[in-house]
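Lecture 7, part 2: worked example. A protein chain together with coenzyme A.
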Amino acid sequence: MRLTLAETEAHRREVLALFLDTFSDIAPTAVPMPHVDHLYRPAIAQVRDDTGALVASALTCVPQKAAGVALLPPQMRPQGLSRAAERVSELDLVAVQPDRRGQGVGQKMIEFLESVLVSRGVRTWFGCATPDLDVAALRHFYARAGFKVLTEGQPLPPLGGQNWSVPFAEAPAFYFWKKLRAAH
Ligand SMILES: CC(C)(COP(=O)(O)OP(=O)(O)OC[C@H]1O[C@@H](n2cnc3c(N)ncnc32)[C@H](O)[C@@H]1OP(=O)(O)O)[C@@H](O)C(=O)NCCC(=O)NCCS
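Predicted complex, written out as structure tokens:
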């Protein structure tokens, strides 16, 4: 199996297809274009088997809140948010093909993306899980990957001096976050 960053439009489409198969409620625009999208600056891990078939993928990018604010005229943008977003990333989507789960693939993608984020100067990584997923298993998964896993209803603390929570129609089941080491 090979673990790389998705870099082409063909990769992006395959990753999107995996996420659409895995999650019932995501938009067809959920996967930004790698290298081209400077608003979301995504890092998209992809795991492929020896035949080149996609086994798993994980997407992390500029937090939704900062990307949304970037659409406002400069004088209306909250001060500091865009600057803080240079050092914070939101783990947005993680999916492993059902027949490949429980074999360490998800953990390897988290480790890989963490090293990519460190090399980009990101210092804090966070995400949340929605209640429609297997919440107990995901708590275990993220804790094992070294995240602080918050209790149900516990708000994300300010990270990099900013509040990154976004108003969801439905509250997340839990948030998770971790500090990353500084790049050498
Ligand atoms: C969650 C998910 C990405 C984990 O990937 P994975 O490759 O199955 O996870 P790993 O094999 O690296 O498992 C690491 C740990 O998480 C646990 N785990 C969590 N969810 C699991 C699941 N659904 N199936 C199997 N193991 C799971 C494992 O027991 C393992 O713990 P252990 O090593 O102490 O036994 C994957 O199961 C998946 O795609 N689930 C559906 C989509 C989803 O919920 N994504 C997360 C959105 S927030």
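Residues 131 and 173 are 5 Å apart (CA to CA). The helical segments are 9-22, 64-69, 81-85, 105-119, 135-144. Keep this in mind for problem set question 3.
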